[in-house]
Predict the 3D structure of the following.
Amino acid sequence: MRGRPNRQAAINDLLVRNVRLDGAAQTVALAIRNGRIESLGAAPDDWSGPTVDGKGQLALPGLVDGHAHLDKTMWGLPWRPHSAEPGLAGLIGNERAGRRELPSVAERAGGLLDAYIERGTTLIRTHVDVDIDNGTSAVESVAQAAADRADQIDVQIVAFPQSGLLVAPGTVELMDAAMSAGADLVGGIDPAGFDGEPVEHLDAIFALADRHGCGVDLHLHDRGALGRWEMGLVIERTRALGLTGKVIVSHAFCLCDGDPTIPALVEQLGELQIALATVAPGNVDPLPLDLLDEYGVGVCLGQDGIRDLWSPWGDADMLARAGLMGWRAGYRRDEDIARCVDIATTRGAAAIGVSNHEMVVGGRGDVVLVGAAGAAEAAVTSPPRSLVIKSGRVVSNSDR
Amino acid sequence: MRGRPNRQAAINDLLVRNVRLDGAAQTVALAIRNGRIESLGAAPDDWSGPTVDGKGQLALPGLVDGHAHLDKTMWGLPWRPHSAEPGLAGLIGNERAGRRELPSVAERAGGLLDAYIERGTTLIRTHVDVDIDNGTSAVESVAQAAADRADQIDVQIVAFPQSGLLVAPGTVELMDAAMSAGADLVGGIDPAGFDGEPVEHLDAIFALADRHGCGVDLHLHDRGALGRWEMGLVIERTRALGLTGKVIVSHAFCLCDGDPTIPALVEQLGELQIALATVAPGNVDPLPLDLLDEYGVGVCLGQDGIRDLWSPWGDADMLARAGLMGWRAGYRRDEDIARCVDIATTRGAAAIGVSNHEMVVGGRGDVVLVGAAGAAEAAVTSPPRSLVIKSGRVVSNSDR
């Protein structure tokens, strides 16, 4: 892809002069050709493409949200007080009733994508509801909103049976249809604690993934021994179907309680490259990052829902979220806080199957510039995004 | 104070037209005369003082930080990576070495006070280090920075033996001197876990408070049964010296672990009006607010240190901090999130001994205007402070 520049592709060419990489004192010029980083250092002698001045700012890889729910948001709408009864069933019922009054999914998801882009996110994985009320329409709408912004942000869609799979007959068939309607991965939700048929639930979603040749991203809030038992079922099926590197368990609260059986499970996650998505929740203990590192387990970070019928929290700012992750973990040292930024960029991208999302030659030309000494300060202060670049194309410029 | 307006005091008179109070749909005019709220509703017929347009924004009481460390901050200085060895002793040693290289306490504390004022805080209680290296100089410097801003923010100073009281001979005498040098309250720190002489430590600080006729604000990080045993000693001494309503325990992590003996302790806190200060920490469980409410225990919220040699976190924004408190507690409903704003305003002020800090006739004329539907949205979104009013005087105006 590199070496012989394609002169036709100037729209994905950009030279950003005068930027700093995390940990470096000197500024460099960052050349992106055909959407990939061609050089980092001196500017290419023969550069004739577009050029911008980075003004000595810090260049980070484009931010990555590995766990979002674009279809649910009320972002940009007037404040609406939270109205659900407590508990998961109360939340789900409240949403199915309340969402009828909202503007279209395409409009809301699109508006939220615009907010993500402005805040420097260039890659996002969103779960999208599939249920017997709305069928696959939300998947279609989010796919359309994403297609309308394909030059600005990469969007992965997980078909998500929010209202249950087996408790809501007909949903398995709708999930199958969703995979043809624009979804990229098969989702699932608390096979035991919510759906009540853990083995059947997991068999169904893994069969769908096998049939469509795609990955799985499972919501698993079930805690303690129950959640760990389900994690074991996920591991079994990932191994049996050869889905190494294609499965994510989202939330995984069952790995956060310090139980002595956790390391053995984590070792198997590492072996099968089953990654974890965390949203750095405010009131659940953090994932055991040191242990995950020890076994090379992939991790990504997400906002979860943003200003929706589930919760008023969230703000589409993945740099601020990386800061919350570090604050929740009690991190103080730059290298620890920078780990969270890595999870919100390069490591998060890898967890959701996107390699080379980093500031190296050959890396994806997704870059965000901020006024900060380094990644740690950026996460702590969450400064404005001066410039957001997607595949060598400027998609947001606050200096304009 | 009200009733017969003092025509000389126009500097503390202000009519704010067109503002909304939390929970009200209609806008009102808010008249402040001689620094106190004179009316909330129709504008006074005879108003001849200064007038501003509130533009329909939400009017909250001035924000209150009940637990700060102004003298420690590196706010506004270039980013400095955290450099302490782990543990309390490592942190204290790192600070005593590193602070010598920093600009003066007056300059740093003053700059941080300016940031607080701009972000709508009108009342703050700060602990200030007293130790054998620096004696009472930090207390004097913070008192001067506060005096320079006396029209903009009220500052209470706690003399704080950060490096220990009995482990550092001479400190008791310096604490005594600090009370004459500008401190308003006597502080203390982990009488058992850090100072190693719990009974003697508490006897010493309560004797100082008794001698100077002031209150006590004790840092108590000691957890579990140890911390609760110390809390019992605090209760004994508060009762014996008749210090009802004049004692705060800061942090109080020992009340956060759900132990069955906690309610009996909390009942005594309520009886003696011993309040608690929390900083809504990122990685310690929250205070049991429902239980504190049941026994009428006062609570205030603070930022703790801000961007200092202890930690890179903190941002002088008490509305954002109220949001973090609600997020950490898992609150979703408006009334729950608004409780956190109450703790960051009216209830927090009462906890540190300042009554009538609220949006009622006769209340203190400290008001902050923000663009939000109500207190819950304000805490979640932490919008810019359009107008900050201290005792009827505009001290920050972002529309200028």
In short: Residues 1-8 of chain B have pLDDT under 50 and may be disordered. The CA atoms of residues 186 and 216 of chain B lie 5 Å apart.
